[in-house]
Amino acid sequence: YEILQLNNNLINNFKVGDYITHQDYGIGIFHGLKLVKANNIEGEYLQIEYENNEKLYVPVKDISLLTKYFSNKDDNSQFKLDSLSSKKWSERLKIAKKNAFDHAANILDIESKRSLSHAKSMKINDKDFEEFNDRFPYKETIDQINAVNAIQKDLSLIRPMNRLLCGDVGFGKTEVAVRASYISIYNGYQTIILVPSTI
Predict the structure, then answer these.
(1) C-alpha dist (Å) from residue 15 to 49, 75, 149
(2) Total Cβ atoms within 10 A of residue 65
(3) For residue 175, which of 20, 41, 87, 158 sits 20 to 30 Å off, Cα-Cα?
(4) Better-predicted residue by pLDDT, 54 or 73
(5) pLDDT at site 5
(6) How far is the C-alpha of 197 from the C-alpha of 193, rounded, in Å?
């Protein structure tokens, strides 16, 4: 039942005429659900049209192989569909996988160099930090306190901090960032905050 419900939710994301990417065959146009008889068994299939009016019928159980295609271009009139009889999609897929692998290797290389580098330990007097925190109008949540403590610990180490602060809108990310910035300023560093929505 759960799998059926999941499949229905995925199908509802597709509208007739949408560009759809099949991970094995590339980009085509979605033409809705069709009843198809195969091996004397009738079932529901998603019909996708490719170049030269080629049709692909994807069993509903394989819907996870499909994703909606989004183009950066506003005008799709010159858009070229992939072909079921061509190897162009598989060649593009190989290039994309290689590029992703190269990019991952580059990130690992940068991270290994960062792990060997040193940074100044940034510490702050507890009394001064408490006085600064008392100026905020809202009471901190447990998650905010945990994030501030973790960032404060990272900044006190003698290696560059590498941290992503993530949360929903209105959950106090900016307040955490301002506290981290204050620790940096307290240690004599210039700090830049780029376009936080709260401020």
Answers:
(1) 14, 18, 47
(2) 15
(3) 158
(4) 54
(5) 46
(6) 11
